[in-house]
Amino acid sequence: MAKDDRPAVAPRMPGHLIRRLHQVSTRVFGQRLKAAGIDLTPIQFAALDALRAHPGIDQAGLAEAVAKDRATIGGVADRLEQKGLVTRIVSERDRRARELTLSEAGRRILAAAEPVVTALQHEILPGLNEAEYAQFVALAAKAAAAAEEGDTTA
Amino acid sequence: MAKDDRPAVAPRMPGHLIRRLHQVSTRVFGQRLKAAGIDLTPIQFAALDALRAHPGIDQAGLAEAVAKDRATIGGVADRLEQKGLVTRIVSERDRRARELTLSEAGRRILAAAEPVVTALQHEILPGLNEAEYAQFVALAAKAAAAAEEGDTTA
DNA sequence: GCAGTATGGTATGTATACATATCATATCGG
DNA sequence: CCGATATGATATGTATACATACCATACTGC
Fold first, then answer.
1. pLDDT for the residue A68
2. Which domains does chain A have, with CATH numbers?
3. Mutation site, A12, A17, A103, A107, interface B, largest B CB count within 10 A
4. Which residue in A52, A104, B133, B152 is a FRET match for B95, CA 20 to 30 A apart?
5. Which long-range contacts link A78-82 to residues 24+ away (Cβ below 8 Å)?
6. pLDDT tens digits along B80-134
């Protein structure tokens, strides 16, 4: 036995590469934001960002915008509310729904975080020059858009 | 207020795109493997794959190979051992270390999973043609390699 | 207007992922 | 040989991420 030792195949698959880049991204994000004195995770930042663009959106809408998962967004909304960054009120139009809105503190922390987040994006893809970086973003955006098309989280 | 409504910026950042592709990847992987009657997560598959390439490696080495995090790999190793896919024995050379090896069952499930995993890779990047797919993989591999160079998880 | 169904949220359980602390064992310097 | 330090692993706590099940409320059709 131990006969079929052969190079691992996973490391060359896109799924594996994406997982590793995701780890790099999460780590860089955490380090830079912490260094800037801001306590936000990537998803929390994305949620605040989406909330600024769509004030009063409900959790399902926010899930659609950033995460595709209502259960996860529920937890994210919990933490953002606990930190006082968003307000959560029961919709009058639909008593099942909770409408989310940025608080002043939420607006401030988002404004503080945005330049930091923008600045760290290139660190996520080290070793790529400008042209390669732009190409990666274009390809990733195309794939992500296509994934949402034919999917609808079916 | 609600003055500065403007398009969300996060969706165009590589960090955000990578997170979404990671979600797509995880979902596709889970669906296809489940459909094939195989109960493995992406990391578990990567771990088995690395174990075939490096039999007898310890957990720190496996972490280096697939995940960069010893604590996480500890949990993964727990589950693989519980499923009977790997054996974990205390190293004679270093009594702190646990050497991991594929069991026969581990070898079988890896052999069964590999073609399924290979086949689903293109589904992770829908909407990309062959050339674009190859380009994405090349760029991602370059970035991931660079991230490991200048980093050493310092 | 009521049954059937769809939808918004929450609760629960599993699996990463990582930081930090702690423990056991090696190894190195002197 | 011994103290200082490094390293392998585990324990704990937080935060995604998702499936499944469930509850509350809407909506639809008859």
1. 79
2. 28-146 (1.10.10.10)
3. A17
4. B152
5. A79/A44, A80/A44, A80/A47, A80/A48, A80/A106
6. 999 999 999 998 889 989 999 999 999 999 999 999 999 999 999 998 999 999 9
Residue B81 has φ and ψ, to the nearest 5°, of -70, -40
Distance from CA of A16 to the nearest CA of B (A): 8
- Listed as ranges, the nucleotides of chain D within 7 A of a protein C-beta are 7-13, 15-21, 24-27
Q: State residue A122's pLDDT score.
A: 92
Which residues of chain A are modeled with pLDDT < 50? Answer: 2, 152-154
From the alpha carbon of B63, which nucleotide's C1' atom is closest? D8
Do A9 and B116 form a contact (C-beta atoms < 8 A)?
no
- How many cross-chain Cβ pairs, A to B, lie less than 8 Å apart? 206
Protein CA A131 to sugar C1' C14 (Å): 41
- Residue A26, CB, strand D, below 7 Å: no
> Distance from residue B63 (CA) to nucleotide D1 (C1'), in Å?
35
The tokens 């663009």 sit on which residue? A53
> What are the structure tokens assigned to B106, written together?
């581990």
| Backbone φ/ψ region at A56: left (φ over 0), alpha (ψ -120 to 50), beta | left
B9–A49 C-beta distance less than 8 A: yes
